[in-house]
Specification:
Length: about 425
């Protein structure tokens, strides 16, 4: 039972916008797309939670991804400073494609080591600020609301599409304190297209719409490995400022038009845990790797960038086959935060939307915010059909992430394992 003053929440914001001239990440191989202007400044936002005996922290970043080394450093520093279990700290990226190269994506933007070093300290700063600025919560609400989608399934015309906005709203005891909102919706932040300006994409528009409506908040991009905004067909986003602003307003209105009809949560239990899921990859040998290189070499005049990426991938894969004890198994660390009847499940990759649906069907009594790009972005996790069809997520993206393709059905199996782990908690 949520007693008087027992739950507290802290919120913080730190500017993480890089200098102009930095190379932007997304939309293809070796584009040399360097920032010439700023449409939106980029931010890291911290949300800390505390009850009498327990603390946990979310850091949400306007970035395409985060390097696991940076994530580990930030989590370890905050863990030491505040005596918090590392499993209680989640760093999530919105996955904007108009920000700096901060993940490990071969050929998809050169990383600026000076910026990455600064970024790590800024993320520690935003975590410290959130954990030092707790406010008493009067009540919290959890909701989900279907909207007219801003998105479509880019892999299959009749493929699954999650049309729901999900979230949490925290109202504070001091009436002058702005309510705090966590919102989530599953759609790739690629509405801007191949611009040479820095932008938070539509997640930034969501935050602006929240603020205009009187709320602070964070936007956590839901599972969207196969989902694009309706402005984005092929590789050229056509989102005007007006359209992207409307996206943000539409998502926020889903919360505003719903929240007054929702009863406050009665049992706001906090919990955080993580666990490993092994993923099994296809048993490529060196001959099959060379055959793929030959296929892309034949098309190198038309797609020189991807050929360069494939050559690098081939050398890395051969090295793993020769030197790793089991090169056909990799481990995904899944992180789960519980806040009352809501679960925030963080996946370290770009995950297809059906995987979230499977988990929700297995745990129907919880409001599940399934989010990608949590603590790192190791790979795409597509569904069986995309793997069998050798789609972009199943095969081509492996060259970016330097991974072997998954066995068919691994995404669906991962969803079942995750649901079972949560049910046993």
């Amino acid at each position: 039972m949520q007693e008087e003053g027992i739950m507290r929440v802290g919120y913080s914001v730190v500017d993480i916008t890089p200098d102009l001239g930095i190379e932007l990440s997304g939309y293809g191989w070796y584009l040399g797309r360097k920032a010439e202007g700023i449409i939106d400044r980029l931010y890291a936002r911290g949300v800390a939670f505390e009850d009498n005996t327990f603390k946990m922290l979310i850091i949400n970043c306007d970035l395409i991804a985060i390097d696991e080394k940076i994530s580990d450093y930030v989590r370890e520093q905050l863990s030491k400073l505040f005596k918090i279990n590392k499993a209680n700290i989640m760093i999530v990226c919105t996955h904007t494609h108009t920000g700096p190269a901060t993940g490990k994506l071969i050929g998809c933007g050169e990383r600026d080591e000076k910026y990455l070093s600064l970024l790590a300290d800024l993320l520690v700063e935003v975590g410290v600020s959130a954990l030092n600025n707790f406010k008493d919560v009067a009540y919290a609400k959890s909701f989900e609301k279907e909207i007219d989608p801003i998105s479509f399934n880019r892999v299959r015309k009749d493929g699954p599409l999650d049309k729901y906005v999900r979230g949490l709203v925290f109202n504070f005891k001091e009436e002058e304190d702005r309510p705090l909102v966590i919102l989530s919706y599953g759609c790739h932040p690629v509405s801007r297209g191949r611009l040479k300006e820095i932008s938070a994409d539509y997640p930034g528009a969501v935050i602006k719409a929240l603020y205009a409506a009187g709320y602070d908040g964070v936007f956590m991009t839901g599972l969207c490995g196969d989902i694009n905004p309706t402005t984005h067909k092929g590789m050229s986003g056509e989102g005007t400022p007006e359209v992207i602003s409307e996206y943000g307003t539409r998502i926020v209105k889903a919360m505003i038009n719903t929240i007054d009809n929702i009863e406050p949560m009665r049992n706001v239990k906090l919990d955080a845990f993580e666990f490993d899921v092994d993923l099994y990859m296809q048993n490529y040998d060196e001959k099959e790797i060379d055959e793929l290189v030959n296929i892309y070499e034949a098309d190198k005049e038309r797609n020189p960038g991807i050929f360069e990426a494939v050559k690098i991938w081939a050398e890395v894969m051969k090295d793993r086959l020769q030197n790793e004890e089991n090169p056909y198994v990799e481990t995904a660390k899944i992180q789960v935060f519980r806040i009352g009847d809501a679960l925030i499940i963080g996946f370290p990759g770009e995950v297809f939307t059906l995987i979230g649906t499977i988990i929700r069907n297995e745990i129907p009594h919880m409001n599940i915010l399934a989010v990608g790009n949590a603590n790192s972005t190791m790979r795409y996790v597509p569904t069986r059909d995309d793997i069998e069809n050798k789609g972009y997520a199943a095969l081509t993206s492996c060259f970016l992430y330097q991974r072997l393709p998954l066995m068919p059905g691994e995404g669906e199996r991962m969803a079942e394992v995750v649901a079972e782990e949560i049910k046993q908690r």
